[in-house]
Amino acid sequence: MGNKLTERNKDYSKWYNELVVQADLAENSAVRGCMVIKPYGYAIWEKMQAELDAKFKETGHQNAYFPLFVPKSLFEAEEKNAEGFAKECAVVTHYRLKTDPEDKSKLIVDPEAKLEEELVVRPTSEAIIWNTYKGWIQSYRDLPILINQWANVVRWEMRTRLFLRTAEFLWQEGHTAHASKGEALAEAKQMNNIYANFLENFMAIPVVQGLKSESERFAGAEETFCIEALMQDGKALQAGTSHFLGQNFAKAFDVKYASKEGKLEHVWATSWGVSTRLMGALIMTHSDDKGLVLPPKLAPHQVVIVPIYKGEEQLMEISETANELAAELREAGISVKYDNRDTHKPGWKFAQYELQGVPLRIAIGPKDLEKGTVELARRDTLTKEFVNQSEIVGKVKGLMVEIQDTLFQKALDYRSEHTTKVDTFEEFKNVLKTKGGFISAHWDGTIETETKIKELTKATIRCIPLEADKEDGKCVFSGNPSSQRVLFAKAY
Amino acid sequence: MGNKLTERNKDYSKWYNELVVQADLAENSAVRGCMVIKPYGYAIWEKMQAELDAKFKETGHQNAYFPLFVPKSLFEAEEKNAEGFAKECAVVTHYRLKTDPEDKSKLIVDPEAKLEEELVVRPTSEAIIWNTYKGWIQSYRDLPILINQWANVVRWEMRTRLFLRTAEFLWQEGHTAHASKGEALAEAKQMNNIYANFLENFMAIPVVQGLKSESERFAGAEETFCIEALMQDGKALQAGTSHFLGQNFAKAFDVKYASKEGKLEHVWATSWGVSTRLMGALIMTHSDDKGLVLPPKLAPHQVVIVPIYKGEEQLMEISETANELAAELREAGISVKYDNRDTHKPGWKFAQYELQGVPLRIAIGPKDLEKGTVELARRDTLTKEFVNQSEIVGKVKGLMVEIQDTLFQKALDYRSEHTTKVDTFEEFKNVLKTKGGFISAHWDGTIETETKIKELTKATIRCIPLEADKEDGKCVFSGNPSSQRVLFAKAY
């Protein structure tokens, strides 16, 4: 276990970096900007994957796998998409290394093994997938195609941070093909909704669903739906996006279908994705100065049992009770770890599991055996109580629900307190400076205003909320008329 | 659905390629040697993943994720490993594309975005992982490390075939670190054993467990355990390998631990993997001239129900019964697809599900409604019978077990018939030419003999079986003394 974390109010960014490493979630690797996701961090990611994968399948999607590489000629086919990603893509140019003639212990790129056409390591897979769909789609009978892929992607970012922005990251990308605009739009909305429900009900993170402004849209999309969450430092985080791609990719790759009426028409598309960035959202929404705080639905271990003992004999007695309790809890569907390692002291274990955000800790000592009790400690509130062993299963089951709800409510309260309606630009700047968070303000709908506000304040339009009431007003910057408030914030 | 498949005895290789594409398992992509794994093929791979992942976790392994890229300086650190993979690795040299000044619609590699150090796309991850383990291991308390990774890897093969040999493939790679040689060896054996059990009990593929000869070992391993299966054309297929890596990587990356006695010692290592190549083994073990044959434990749909009807009203009546049966079967843990699409005729559906290897097909027509029966067709034996609807659940449950067993027994019989003991080189060549399969023969243990036999016959030593009786004899080629028979075969 590492040292005490830097406190959030001293240096939020440092706190985050220390927490990620010390809680064994991830670390930087020898490859610039690429991370190693450690077993504990990966176990949380697996929980996210399992839940999302089930939701995708329930809504008729199937998984498939497409190549890691995109030939340059395909990559450049959809112009806006290519332009958007060209600046940050890793390019394979050779397919062989050979021994360095000047130093036999070294390898060099073999100049004779140059590829005829360079291969881009996928930053996203629209190009390779739509080139494939071309061969799959002839008639309306072949539609819709509802496919998802779990994969790694690479975007050569210059400034990286564990989970939040890494050169390689893991994600899922859905790519669907439809016979009509309406169906594709409904799909894009549906998937954004699935993301929102997942974040709120599973990760206990409240989100705002909305549309991106034109300048924040995915390169190649006609409309980008998104979910935006608010972190504890008042900055927003884009947690997932779902794009209505119109017929852009179908046109770039010439994908047409024969309709029921026998007409040849271009196919309509969506794509949607969430990534390991969600780990960053998770950490920055719930955690505290003692470390990670996990909602029970995402915790690899929901309960950890720690024995407090002196000597082998006492450990055996305690273990008997601990194993019985663990068995009862598992029977009730709770995941339990019994940590009876003799290499570490109870105090060390307490601190470690606090750091790693295990929702409940049960400690059992010799006095507990006498009294038939255990000490139950709750990670989110840092409170403790003694509970009769006979009541532990019911108690723990109840707390799993209660903790999940409490975390969501706490995050929701934070967001409510940090969402401010403003009507003047002075107020806008002032709120941004003093408390941060979401700023709900009128905007005239122009890129010029958006750009100017960004230049002056670093705040961007996070989204045009889907559920906001229409309300006539004046743009907070230009004073021109506006029909709806949008959400501004500084963002990750 | 495609055309009739080429028959196996006419052109086995063509049959295989046609089957993979027509059964919707995979197809070639726009990227040389890289495949697209289609949803049906991927669903089978997911079944394999789920079962293997559970077995890994039961034996104490955890999943993690390491970078896709290996900096050249790390790649070359373990000399033999580097030498083994240098000839076939994709190399990233640049991190940006830019608009072609001569044609604004094209992109070119930006010469100003050349990486200081080239990055190898991982062909296997020992180098990047052992460089990471260096930071994780200080004392015996940090050991063992038992980690698995599900990932894509790239090996630039010149001759590729769907699933069997592709430039990019999906796999899992286990990488473990231990305090003693004995523990590492036991781990390598254990994992090979898990692979063997998985192939036999889940994929219904009999395998021989053995050791690789020195020349067939993994580059950088001290000992390679393997499982070898026999395909229907008499060629062997290496289905999985588990390597005892000794201290080679610990030495290359300077990974030492302080023992209980306080001595600094190099760590012992294993690595082990199976890949999407298993899809090829699956296809070539069980399938026939009508298409894929799937063991029930791997079938995405174990039962398909096809209604035989004229008109909407009849379909509704049949659907009522079909949905009831489907619900009962699902209740009993059977995965069922009810295909009531009106876009395809029953005959087309029958052929399609035969091609895709669905173990059982249930057809329900108007006469079945009268009589309370269904027609039950078995994919592996191509037999049909009428079964009372009231008996269908018991019948299907029984057949799931029976089909799984039958497929295994059939493959085992084939292997027994195609494993031949030979004692002269004439016989060796003759058997290889006339019936193929495994040849059990004495070998003098030298690379010279092994190489010579390979040159003359194209047969290689598939393995030195773990369970063979020691038996004194004379090398089938050199006549020199030998203490054990080994298995030769032509191989994929």
UniProtKB/TrEMBL annotation, chains A, B:
Main location (coarse class): cytoplasm
The UniProt entry's GO biological process terms, in alphabetical order, are: prolyl-tRNA aminoacylation
Where does it reside? Cytoplasm
Enzyme Commission number: 6.1.1.15
What PROSITE patterns does this protein map onto?
AA_TRNA_LIGASE_II (PS50862)
GO CC, sorted alphabetically, is: aminoacyl-tRNA synthetase multienzyme complex; cytoplasm
Functionally, this protein is described as follows: Catalyzes the attachment of proline to tRNA(Pro) in a two-step reaction: proline is first activated by ATP to form Pro-AMP and then transferred to the acceptor end of tRNA(Pro).
Q: Which family does it belong to?
A: Belongs to the class-II aminoacyl-tRNA synthetase family. ProS type 3 subfamily.
Instruction: Return the PANTHER family for the record.
Output: BIFUNCTIONAL GLUTAMATE_PROLINE--TRNA LIGASE, PROLYL-TRNA SYNTHETASE
The name this protein carries in UniProt is Proline--tRNA ligase
Instruction: Identify the taxonomic lineage of the organism of origin.
Output: Bacteria, Pseudomonadati, Bacteroidota, Flavobacteriia, Flavobacteriales
Quick one: which gene encodes this?
proS
